Amino acid sequence: MSVAIEPPDVGVLFVVSGPSGVGKSTLLRRVMASIPDLGFSVSATTRSPRAGEVDGRDYHFLDATRFSELVASGAFLEHARVYDRAYGTLRAPVEQALAGGRSVILDIDVQGARQVRETFPDAVHVFILPPSRETLLERLRGRGTDDAATIARRMELADGQLAHARHYDYVTVNDDLKAATAVLQSIFVAALHSVECRRSALDKLVAHAT
Ligand code: ADP
Ligand code: 5GP
């Protein structure tokens, strides 16, 4: 179901985390199709592209040298080593979008989320939980994009990600896809109606209120 909402006065920075295979990309695709004007931050990574992934659309696929140069030049808003590879959010596109009043979604791990919490205290953090570890493993296998060793490593590191869920603003279980999409959509729509986001509507009607 798509949601028609007035553009907010300020853009919201959304951080979405959860263990690999929980369904973050799937959910975000659906939410972005239903709420207008949500930008997605395309991360840089040193991991190899999966079949079907496109450079510049899914990730900026970089070699380790280029990644290190970008770290040294301060180009990343946050960066971390995740599942034995480097990942980072490029600062410029995110800052430009927010300065222009557009909202941006970061699909990043718990280490990156911690860094964002310090630099963007108003960011809205959402953690996606799997219904169970068994389901997580089934989804990683069912996706058909990773070999057995990669899947085993991701399962091994899932607990480390899950342990941080309590630090997030919102938590939801991705069991039934339709229901989880509706919950995530509701969280986004609510955040886009904070007083900060609706300041001009308030000021128009409540001009002298303190
Ligand atoms: P992530 O981005 O968190 O790594 P993906 O979005 O790639 O995860 O999803 C991993 C796999 O799980 C995909 O094959 C996807 O189609 C499937 N999936 C996602 N959400 C659900 C769900 N609610 N029920 C069943 N399968 C799901
Ligand atoms: P994948 O390799 O499955 O696409 O992503 C693996 C993990 O890296 C996911 O948990 C994802 O959220 C995280 N990730 C993707 N981009 C970034 C990023 O820019 N920074 C950080 N810290 N994590 C990221």
Low-confidence stretches: none
Q: Share of helix among residues?
A: 40-55%
Number of strands: 9
Query: Can you name the CATH architecture of one domain?
Result: 3-Layer(aba) Sandwich
Approximate shape: globular
Radius of gyration: 18 Å
Please report the distance between the alpha carbons of the first and last residues.
37 Å
Ligands bound to this protein structure: adenosine-5'-diphosphate, guanosine-5'-monophosphate
What's the CATH H-level superfamily name of one domain?
A: P-loop containing nucleotide triphosphate hydrolases
Q: Could you say what the CATH topology of one domain is called?
A: Rossmann fold
| N-to-C series of helices and strands | EHEEEHEEHEHEHHEHH
